Amino acid sequence: MGKVNSKISSEDCAKFLKKTSFTKKEIYQWYKCFYKSCPEGFISKEQLLNMYYGVFPCGNPRNFVDIAYKAIDLNNDGSITFDDFIITLDVCKRNSNEKIDWIFRFFDVDNDGIINKKELTNFVDAIYQMLGKKEVESLLDNTVEKRVNTILSSLNTNKDIITKEDFGKLINNNQTKELLAIIKLMI
Fold first, then answer.
1. Helix intervals (H) in the chain
2. Domains along the chain?
3. Helix H or strand E encompassing 115
4. Chain-centre distance of CA 168, in angstroms?
5. What does the angle CA 36 – CA 105 – CA 90 come to, to the nearest 5 degrees?
6. Residue 109 gets which letter from DSSP?
7. What's the DSSP call for residue 179?
8. What are phi and psi of 175, to 5 degrees?
9. What is the pLDDT along the chain (187 residues), one digit of tens a residue?
């Protein structure tokens, strides 16, 4: 792919003004920043992985990046474009049901409308791998199994699944806020 235009069109800016809560000035700034970092017009999975290695040098972020890339690539075309980036950024800065839905999709890898124990385990494991052994040892629930069991038991159900409704309750749970704070730092 060749170099993409580094100035956003007025039509695209208008589209993002409607789709996001950003101002025109903010959209122009994010666009300029995005294309300065990604002159090809997209972020590859390898680029994202390298960014995460820079932030988490003591861990292995590969599995987390696989999950994150899939969640951020909103149109599932195999690349993170400016459209994907700005919409995800907008959702992440909000405190809304839309943000809860997006985070839920982050966990719900198979898109079946529930988070099963395997998905939750894989997600927590990906985060723990990314953080690295030393960082994980300092956490209250310092094994994947402990963290998953804490999350599931906090729902007071006998199920090994989390519905979207359960997830909304879970987000407000103090034991889960530590995990969500980590996620927020990463996206």
1. 10-19, 24-37, 45-55, 62-72, 82-93, 97-107, 117-131, 133-137, 144-154, 164-171, 174-186
2. 96-187 (1.10.238.10)
3. strand 114-116
4. 16
5. 40
6. T
7. H
8. -70, -25
9. 445 566 899 999 999 999 999 999 999 999 999 999 899 999 999 999 999 999 999 999 999 999 999 889 988 899 999 999 999 999 888 766 787 888 888 889 888 999 999 999 999 999 999 999 888 888 877 899 988 888 888 776 667 888 888 887 777 665 555 555 555 544 4
Residue 167 token pair: 């997830």
Render the burial of 105-124: b for 16+ CB within 10 Å, e for the rest: bbbbbeeeebbbeebbbbbb
> Residue 133, Cβ neighbours under 10 Å: how many?
11
Looking only at the bridges linking them, the beta strands covering 161-163 and 80-81 are unpaired
Where does residue 74 rank: exposed (0-12), middle (13-18), buried (19+ CB within 10 A)?
middle
pTM of the model: 0.78
